[in-house]
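Example record for the data management plan.
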Amino acid sequence: MAGGNCTIVNEFVLLSFSALQPKLQALLFLLFLTTELTTLMGNALIILVTTVDCGLHSPMYFFLRNLSLLEIGFNLVIVPKMLGTLLAHDTNISFLNCAVQMYFFFFFGASECFLLATMAYDRYLAICDPLRYPVIMSHKACVQLAAVSWLSGLPVATVQTTWLFSFPFCGSNQVNHFFCDSPPVLKLVCADTALFEIYAIVGTILVVMAPCLLILGSYVCIGFTIIRMPSAEGKRKAFSTCSSHLLVVSLFYGSGSLTYFRPKSNNSPESKKLLSLSYTVVTPMLNPIIYSLRNKEVKTTFRHILHRALGSWKF
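Corresponding structural encoding:
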């Protein structure tokens, strides 16, 4: 559609991994399809296992179910379109679909930051204040904390996506990424975006740092409590309840920080694509593996479900 001397953009082209040879793209498709199926099955199993077993209805597993739901949503927003670009070379994405993808990317990402902080707070109460833990972390309190974590993503996603897509887009419509992330889409705007960029930086720091500081504070208190425990067995049990969460937090914040807080001089589009794969593809796949391999209760329940399922097939 023509407008003056520039062409108004009404759809985008995701460059994705189009620079690679077709054989490499086919290999990537198989790799990402495998990780996609592993992610969906792994997180679905976590939800199933922690729902079926009444012994896993504690607050820790309630929040773990919510984390798995978030990971499934986060993954489905990004990966199916990426698979389409690799298999069918379907690189076009409409203006609306690009905005929707960006909205839910921000929504699930921000919600996960706050949910990880809520899980850290749960571990803090369980270890540092065990006598009052059952009273404070009642089912009603858990539902409220989970709801706040989910809803925290709404203002971030709404403001940033609505503001960005209210700008005029003209000229090139090629997004140098495998999904509609804010920085590559922002480069296509033909207007002054200085105020938006300031908001985006400040908003991202607040959304990332506020939960991160809460997580850090919780684990500092947990660390001091564990050190003061008299028995080695008590220390081991206390640490084992936190180790999976700590590893998940490190993966999530580490990969996100490397992607968005690197100096621009070291931040080429290709390197950012590779780093983005770590939190859009790899981390959602690893989370259920981490929680299942490092958690005795989850492994035991999964074995029981598997045995019952296999037993039902015997004649």
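Summary line stored alongside the record: The beta strands are 2-3, 6-7, 11-14, 92-94, 174-175.
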